Amino acid sequence: MDSSQHNSAAGSIGGNGIINPKSNDASPVDSAANAAGSPAEESKQNLNQVINSVDKTLGILHQLYLTVSAYNVSSQFPLLQRMNNLVVELDNMARLGEKCNIQVPMEVLNLIDDGKNPDEFTRDVLNSCISKNQITKGKTDAFKLAKHTTCGKNE
Known about the structure:
This protein is 75% helix and 4% strand. It is mainly alpha-helical and 155 residues long. It has a domain at 106-155. It has a two-stranded antiparallel sheet.
C-alpha cells in the first residue's frame, strides 16, 4: 500500500502535517453541511499547501545559496542533499499546483514579463471600477433629480 492509499484510509493530511481523521458515522445534517462547504474548504486547503510548499522551496533555495557561496570539498554531500531536497519539493509543488484552479489575467503576466509590479494592474482595475461607479452614481442621481422635479411640477 503506497502512502496516498494509506493517507486516504486513515484520513487526510492537512497543510501543517496533522492528520485529519475520517469519520464514517456523520449524521445526515453534518453530511449536508460538509457537502456544501467542502469544495471551498478543499480549494483553500490546496492553496495553503501550495503556499507552504513555495515557502519551503524558498528556504531550500536559500540554504543552497549559502552552501554554494561557501563551497569546498567537504560541503559536497550537504550540497547534494539540498539539491535532492529541492527536486523533491519542486515535484511536490507541481503535484499540489495541479489541484489548484487559479486563473491569472494575461495582463498581469505581461506586466511581470515586462519587469513591472503586478500591483499596478490591481490599482488600474480598482480605479476603473471607482470611475465607472461614480458615473453610474451620477446617472442615478440625475434620474432621481429629474423624477423629483417632474413630481414637483405635477402638483
